[in-house]
Amino acid sequence: MDRGIKILVVDDDKDYNLYLTKFLSDDGYIAKGITKTTDTLPTLDQEKFHIVILDLKMPQISGTELLKEIKSKHQNICVIILTGYPSFKTAVETMKLDAFDYLKKPFDLNDLRMALNNAQKTYCLVGSSKDKLKSSVGKKLKSLRKSKKITQKQLANRTGLSPSLLSQIENGQIAASLTTLDKLSASLNVKIAYFLDEGSNESSSRLDQNGKY
Question: Which domain holds residue 161?
């Protein structure tokens, strides 16, 4: 089954990289592996990838620093972290940098499958309704922001997200990641479900008098 989803595996261990790319290809993904960290950004600039699987401990540059660079240039790419040296500190650091998931090596392949399935749903990479969902989330965000009389710049300052990203989400051009929705929901005082409930066409009717969902 061809899922039509491109995944870039960044891991300096050649054998492990080959193992992961083969597993992903067998599972229906379009997978490419690179072992040189310096090739990561040029590869992402040249080709469109939906998901990056990134090893945390690599030579030349740490996975955390590389994650920061990836997100600074390609904010809407989903990044899943792999590490053989897990720690609470690195888990928190990567989540703050908008990593989607954090998996400890060795891991059950079903855990990776679950992380990928969740990523596809969150980033609207599957289903014929993905454009409809992006549009729905964008409209709800714009409507709620305006109802609270908050400008995009003010919301950007509150959430740490760029005004450009907020504009793209509101216009339905890109899908918001789960981490992004979490920041928006916290700032706007609603639950994440407010944005993802496709059955809610009348956003305002779902809010109580205090603006809570």
Answer: 130-206
In this structure, are 102 and 65 located in the same domain?
yes
The model's pLDDT over 69-93, given as tens digits with 9 standing for 90+, comes to 998 888 888 899 988 777 788 888 8
In the chain, the number of structural domains is 2
End-to-end Cα distance, the chain:
39
How confident is the model over 146-189, as pLDDT tens digits?
Answer: 999 999 999 999 999 998 899 989 988 888 887 888 899 999 99
**Of the residues 122, 156, 183, which one is the last residue of a structural domain?**
122
Do 170 and 109 share a domain, yes or no?
Answer: no
CB under 8 Å to 206, separation ≥6 — which residues?
194, 197, 200, 213
Q: What is the pTM of this model?
A: 0.58
> For residue 92, how far is the Cα from the chain centroid?
16
